[in-house]
Amino acid sequence: MSEMTEIKGRNANSIRWWILAALAATQLILVLDSTIMNVALPTTQADLGFTDADRPWIITAYALAFGGLLLVGGGLSDTFGRKRLLLVSLGGFIIASLIGGLASNFTTLVVARALQGTSGALIAPATLSLLVTTFPSSPSRGKAFGIFGGVSSGGSVIGLVLGGYLTQYLDWRWCLLINVVIGIGIAALAAKVLPAETHTLTPGARPDILGAVVSTLGLLSIVFGLTIAESRSWTDWMTVGAIGLGLALLALFGLVEKRTSHPLLPIRVIRDRNRGGAYLMVAIAGIGMFGVFLFLTYHLQIVNGFTPLATGLAFLPMVGMLVVGSIAAGTVLLPRMGSRALACIGLTVAAFGAASFTTINADSRYLFGILPGLLITGAAFGLVFGPAMNLATSGVPPNDAGAASAMVNAGQQIGAAFGTALLNTIAVSATATHLATQPHTPDALVQSTIHGNSVAFWTTGGILIAGALICGLLITPHKDSSSTAPVDSSPVA
Fold it and tell me: Residue 345 CB: number of other CB atoms within 10 A?
């Protein structure tokens, strides 16, 4: 008996919308946790006493685990059953959040964030699959996906504001502990309303454990190398060795996927130059967006003296313009201009937005010094995400649609992890070099921090320009209509 058959046997309309409520709430806590710790980072760093070089791990541990294991989650969802995997993974997410909220040191917090990301990677595909099977036809399908997409977009906003509020009025630990409270309620609702499954293990299907291990270790090794470069130098044997090992493991992952019968990522999915360009689009955008979040957060709180809540509110215009840009790209610009043009324009404009932050200093005011750049980068990133999802899923065979869609979200999270590690290393190194040349005055550290952030913003702009050029060469020029896969295209900010 299928899931939808059982739903039809009961009060279908009522049950479906209760299922949507459970799934949308699940999606909310995943998106929320991508941003909720951003504005809490300075307070968390002061409390636990970790260094500037270590701070990106609070973000990258979640993003790397989420992005690196997202394809694994899709395979396990089909293998073990969606409801079963959703409930078990929600339990893991709740436990990881509790560990992080009670963490007494940096290492425990990073491990907890990695466990959160791992659980999220298992939750996300099961959630989307359940949504697809619960609403198989229009018009209820369109309405359900609209609500689900709205929650995805709004979750990043809620994460920024809620993170600032909890940090300022309670404690940064509640940015994690709140998942325990919300998660238990979601799990109880999901257990009650999701239909019972008669699903058993798919005959002959084996999870691609080797592929998952190799790819995750490869990504982790590269991020580790990028992170330690600041303290050990770019030419140090450990830095070069870690990055080299990571690249070798990713090459090995490609060989593993060619030879396994049930690959996490079928090579035919990424062999298409347009799909490869789509994944590059979101990875580059992920680097830029999380770079802006990280360095502006520290500038606003450390240099300009913003409270955590004020910092969260300060980012709202950027997120709002991102949503507006995504809607405009999908409904008006994409059919007329095509994905290649929008990718090049979006990444180029985002580069100018990032470059605008190189001029801010201790005297810069938010309204005229920072807000214009936030509006520009938000709208520009919005031009990238929707077309990327469309391009990544266009023309994909039904049996590859899940992997193709998951790779878009994975690309953004992996880009965020790589970018945060790389840009933080560059910023911290530039800050230390500048500080060493300055007289010991009270504002020397502030001025050096501003200099380091400026170097990071210039680097971000350069990466975005390079991404625009590569996407322009890689993606073929054509007009796009609509995606062939019914997936959520909302970016996870």
Answer: 17
Dihedral class, residue 236 (left if φ above 0, else alpha if ψ from -120 to 50, else beta): beta
With 0-12 / 13-18 / 19 or more C-beta atoms within 10 angstroms meaning exposed / middle / buried, residue 139 is exposed
Task: Convert 390-407 into a string of H (helix), E (strand) and C (coil).
Answer: HHHHCCCCHHHHHHHHHH
State residue 398's pLDDT score: 63
- For residue 208, the model assigns a pLDDT of 74
74-94 pLDDT, tens digit per residue, is 667 666 778 888 999 999 999
The alpha carbon torsion through 300, 305, 308, 312 (nearest 10 deg) reads -40
Q: Which residues of 441-480 are buried (b: 16+ CB within 10 A; e: fewer)?
A: eeeeeebbbbbbbbbbbbbbbebbbebbebbbebbeeeeb
- Cα–Cα nearest to 45, from 57, 55, 35: 55
> Before 139, cis peptide (omega within 30)?
yes
Determine the length of the chain. Answer: 493
Q: Which segments of the chain have a pLDDT < 50?
A: 1-7, 9-10, 481-491, 493
231-235 own/partner pairs: CB under 8 Å, 24+ apart: 231/53
Predicted TM-score (pTM) of the model is: 0.82
Strand stretches in 217-298, DSSP E: none
The pLDDT value recorded for residue 194 is 86
Please tell me the distance from the alpha carbon of residue 428 to that of residue 453, in angstroms, as a whole number.
8
Residue 357 DSSP symbol: G
